[in-house]
Amino acid sequence: MAEDDFCVLSTLGAGSFSVVVLARHRHSGRKVVIKKMKMLGQTGLEMAHHECNVMRGLSHPNILPLLGTIERAFQLQLVMPYVRGGDLRDYLCRKGPMREEEARRVFRQLASAMEYCHAKGIAHRDLKPENILVQSLNRVKITDFGLSGNFLQQSMDSLQGTLGYMAPEIVTGGTYGPGVDIWSLGERIGWPEILSHPWVTQGMGPMEAYREPTSSDEPAPAEQSIPSSLLPSGGRELRERCSLHPAEARAPAASELSAAEDPAAP
């Protein structure tokens, strides 16, 4: 793809490492999003190539696909479909908390996408509402694999993600596995976030909701971070399954969560 093939319409958002713009393909009229790394040179190029290579190896209905790339000198831009509904954060701000049956529908899709990624050795490591796009409640899509890691190729031990959504084992240091996605999905995104999390219902940001650490190097236990009274019975059970401390029993695999949320499952 060539940069001249697209007409930039607006800036949709910016993160720590990239800027995402809305563009229209000049010949087809199709709207797309283009992700541009803020850092130019070799570092930005390596980050873009990493995300590009990960996305090219993924094909799942609940993962935003890569349409192509735009190559420039020391810059690689990623072209992806435009999802009109915006991200989960915006959706919840507009609509408010979901009903339980709606939340089940969304969570099942997220668990299915994570099951697929983990089967391929990919841990997302930055699951949060801003990285979940809502085409409809029947079709949500996970995006932004820039901080992902392949745990089958090398051990994961670096500090990656967004504080407030990180699993405890990422914050405390040492090696960790794909279970960090399960923690983010269940403790910080799933039932708490889309049903009744205080930073949705009370207008709080995740950093205010993320309680002070119990010591200088250990995050607060999950059971202290979200009052159980805010969650329905299904949410309390899900949180208990997803928010295990790394020193305790293992967190469930994504396949277990997907099956648990499927009413047709035995």
TrEMBL record:
InterPro entries according to UniProt: Aur-like, Kinase-like_dom_sf, Prot_kinase_dom, Protein_kinase_ATP_BS, Ser/Thr_kinase_AS
Domain of life: Eukaryota
Record keywords: ATP-binding, Cell cycle, Cell division, Kinase, Mitosis, Nucleotide-binding, Serine/threonine-protein kinase, Transferase
Reaction(s) catalysed by this chain's protein: L-seryl-[protein] + ATP = O-phospho-L-seryl-[protein] + ADP + H(+); L-threonyl-[protein] + ATP = O-phospho-L-threonyl-[protein] + ADP + H(+)
Region (Disordered): 205-266
Domain named Protein kinase: residues: 6-265
Main location: cytoplasm
EC nos: 2.7.11.1
Enzyme class, broadest EC rank: transferase
One Pfam family linked to the record: Pkinase
PROSITE patterns: PROTEIN_KINASE_ATP, PROTEIN_KINASE_DOM, PROTEIN_KINASE_ST
Positions bound to ATP: K36
Segments of skewed composition (Low complexity): 249-266
Record has Nucleotide-binding as a keyword: yes
Classification via SMART domains: S_TKc (SM00220)
Subcellular location as annotated: Cytoplasm, Cytoskeleton, Spindle
Family in the record: Belongs to the protein kinase superfamily.
Protein name: non-specific serine/threonine protein kinase
Organism annotation: Erinaceus europaeus (Western European hedgehog)
